[in-house]
Specification:
heterodimer, A: 10 helices, flat, B: alpha/beta, Rossmann fold, 2 domains, 6-stranded mixed sheet
């Protein structure tokens, strides 16, 4: 049951978006999110929607995969919409009992819903078309300037990619420990939330111990293979911008400029 | 001097109880002298706690000797300047395949060692390709390590070491967590490396079947070298091996028991073929005697 959890929901297919440099995709996602808060008018959202639709079309990832990510935030979205709908003061459209729906509230609620769903779909496009590994690579490369401020950029990136590698292994291990304890009469299913949480303790202790042992082993194996931090290190798959990445940057700049333009003039 | 040499190697560690008080000192490795020639296939045998893994960790400069010295290709392992050269020349494969694969894709993991050494990008790709081919894992290069079997993962680990172009490989019980099929795969890959590429191999194991093809065998017990010699010499001393709590291959054991009950067999039979041949010979001799 635990094995169903997948992190890094990469969707394997050949497309322009997949082939783009991960740095482009990372920057584009950040820009897209910012642009959602820049625009305020319906025209602006329409532009964002068109941009997103084109990117999704180009990525060749079925739309239902994008929507999957929405499931996780349905609850948050519902709360946001409800609060905005009922608690924004303004011109009353109609009221039931003590609840009042205002014109501003309605507008605000719809805007919020659109923003949130665009935000989720937009970032899913990135995670669906980029392997977690190349994402960490991109982050390492983009954050390199921070090294001046003594931020351990390489180490953080290495930690992230090792964590990603060990998630499935630790999940498998959790499953194993769970089964071993169920076989000896442990009960993870029944009882209220507190009892369930308590039942997790005997699961977490062995899991932590084994995680530490693994970490120790891995550190030794890495040292045995001459790992000594980011210095003197070469890359097997260095990131290099290609022609299509430049085009992508131009398109992105145009989109972003359009968003700002719409905010100012329309 | 051989490629790996130890002289009077002693390693001690301090045992502590739960409060951190010293309980005593354990000698994990006790006065070990090894000399491994270039290109040899050497096996180190011993039951659990015999000090064989501790010994292996000295050769890769993960542990340093309490007394005595270890040289790898003439370099003293306590010499800090040579540390990275030693680790590159003496590659190490560990027991648990899951805990030594770093990459999320097979080829990336194999490239990890060369990346650390600062090998140029194009050459890394060449090295990755040739090492994966050497262990027969080239067609899995785009796979996630999590999708491979234990034997395959261990072969990837071996490829990761070969990609660093070492002169010798130390394998610390590489087959202990594998099923018989995986064990065979790994042993075959290791033998091929020794035969074809001429890489010196130091195989640490407690499976007797794996040492049959070794050039030299060291048997360790309580941190000391208890026996050494060719596999045949070792296996001819069945009683001694039993005292050291080691299992003798079934064929050797059968031959030993037959000999004890009066059949004229030589000591140290290692394979089924050998035994059948010997038995056939005795049978024919018997026939001849009857005819006469």
């Amino acid at each position: 049951m635990l094995r169903d959890i997948t992190l890094g929901q990469y969707y394997q297919t050949e497309s322009v978006i997949h082939k783009l440099d991960p740095r482009v995709k990372l920057i584009a996602t950040v820009c897209f999110i910012i642009s959602l808060f820049v625009v305020k008018s319906w025209i602006g959202y329409a532009v964002a929607a068109v941009f997103l639709a084109v990117v999704i079309r180009l990525s060749k990832v079925p739309f239902k995969f994008m929507v999957k990510g929405m499931k996780a935030i349905v609850f948050i979205m519902l709360i946001t919409v409800v609060f905005n709908l009922f608690l924004t003061p303004g011109e009353v459209l109609f009221s039931v009992w003590k609840l009042r729906i205002t014109r501003e509230g309605l507008q605000q609620a719809v805007t919020m819903a659109v923003r949130l769903s665009f935000l989720i779909v937009g970032s899913s496009v990135m995670t669906l078309t980029t392997t977690p590994n190349s994402l960490t690579d991109a982050m390492e490369k983009l954050m390199k300037p921070l090294k001046v401020f003594k931020v351990p950029v390489h180490e953080v990136a290495m930690m992230m990619s090792i964590a990603l590698r060990f998630i499935p292994i630790l999940l498998e291990e959790t499953d194993k420990i769970m089964k071993a304890q169920i076989a000896r009469g442990a009960d993870f299913e029944s009882g209220n939330l507190i009892r369930k949480a308590k039942a997790m303790v005997p699961l977490l202790v062995p899991l932590f111990i084994s995680a530490f042992r693994r970490a120790n082993d891995l550190a030794m194996a890495m040292e045995a293979r001459c790992y000594r931090g980011g210095e003197h290190r070469t890359k097997m798959k260095p990131l290099r911008y290609a022609g299509r990445d430049r085009i992508a940057y131009v398109v992105l700049t145009a989109y972003f400029a359009a968003c700002i333009g719409i905010r100012i003039w329309l | 001097m051989g490629i790996i040499k130890t002289k009077g190697l002693v390693f001690e560690y301090i045992r502590r109880d739960e409060e951190g008080n010293v309980e005593g000192i354990t000698r994990a490795v006790d006065e070990v002298d090894l000399d491994v020639k270039k290109g040899d296939f050497v096996a180190i045998l011993g039951h659990n706690g015999s000090g064989k893994s501790t010994l292996a960790k000295h050769i890769n400069a993960i542990l340093y000797p309490t007394e005595g010295s270890v040289w790898v290709d003439g370099m003293d392992t306590t010499d800090e300047k040579e540390l990275w050269n030693i680790r590159q020349e003496a590659g190490m494969v560990f027991q648990n395949p899951d805990n030594q694969i770093i990459g999320q894709v097979v080829e990336e993991d194999v490239g990890f060692g060369p990346e650390n050494m600062g090998v140029p990008t194009e050459e890394i790709w060449e090295r990755v390709e040739e090492s994966l081919k050497a262990v027969g894992m080239y067609k899995y290069r785009k796979f996630s390590p999590n999708k491979l079997s234990g034997g395959q993962k261990q072969r990837v680990s071996i490829a990761g070491v070969i990609a660093m172009h070492p002169k010798c490989i130390i394998l610390d019980e590489p087959t202990a967590m594998l099923d018989p099929n995986g064990r065979r795969e790994v042993v075959r890959a290791v033998r091929a490396l020794n035969d074809v590429e001429g890489i010196t191999v130091l195989l640490i194991t407690h499976y007797m079947e794996e040492i049959i093809h070794a050039d030299k065998v060291f048997v360790m017990d309580k941190g000391k070298v208890a026996m050494q010699g060719t596999p045949r010499e070792i296996f001819s001393q069945v009683e001694m091996l039993r005292q050291l709590r080691l299992d003798v291959p079934q064929v050797t054991l059968l031959a030993h028991e037959l000999k004890k009950s009066g059949i004229d067999l030589p000591e140290g039979i290692l394979t089924v073929e050998e035994l059948t041949q010997e038995l056939k010979r005795i049978y024919r001799q018997g026939e001849k005697a009857q005819v006469q």
